[in-house]
Amino acid sequence: MSGPESGRGKRRARWSHFSAQNVPLLLAFFILVGILIFYVVLFYASLGRFPGNFELTSTTNSAIPLVFATMGQTIVFLCRGIDLSVGGMMDISNSLAAVKMQGGGIGSMVGWSTIILLIGAVGGLFNGLLVAVGRLQPIVVTLATLSIFQGIAIKILPQPGGKIPPSYTAFLTNTGYPSALIVVALLVLFWFVFRRTSFGVAIYAIGNDEEAARANGVRTTRTRVGAYVMGGVFAAAAGLFLAATTTGGDATAGDSFTLTSIAAAFLGGTTIFGGRGSALGSIAGAFVLSILISVLFFAEIDPLYQSFYQGLFLILAVVIGTLVGRFVGRKG
Fold first, then answer.
1. What is the reported pTM?
2. What is the extent of the structural domain holding 150?
């Protein structure tokens, strides 16, 4: 075989290996591109123009809370866990921000943002200790703490209200341009760094084989607790972005994010059985679910049936992803 042909063969082999190893991630981005195209087509058919800066900004701003919630869910998934308390922690975060930040200056906003993130860490620590040290089932523990967090949020803000300072909204979710894309870029950068840290490697090791990870010196209990702590911090951050987007507080505003964060993680190729997945795919999954709402709107789907079509879309996406993964696996 000649030199150029040999080089092309090696490149094809490398690409084949990469695609086989990253089918869920590639499929998540393929679905994202597909739904973006579908959205643009429907938008143009409805309004006679292409989406502009306003549409891009509103879409990215509305997706950011789900992106953060899904990031936290993904980290927990990777070590064979699940966090059903995400929505409850977002409720606490949202309520506290709306009650404590209204009328405050920069010091108050920074201070309360820090406190809220610390509360998220404490909530995650509570979950992690019960799961990793208490050896209780994650689904039972986090379902219980979901109710606890929701009750705390209602105590903080019994009725929707409060106010987020305009400067806080402008900083986190600028309405003039899609600054949220910068946040996404920072999250991607964070993931590339985190994935290569000893903690990130340990999380994947536990998800793949906990006994083997323990035999190789991985502190499995501490790592699993740390994963839940990170999940709590990301959930609290999601609540802050939700508060900034809505400019007000609601003790139930985060409830729907529990299931959608799980769905986005699955759609992005992260498995609940641990060890496989990437936050990059989860971010793509979060954007897919966010854009899907706009697609259903421009498709003139009755809002009463939107949940039905969202569920149907998710099932089809997961089934297609499974079939493609099996096909590529057999071909490899």
1. 0.89
2. 3-331
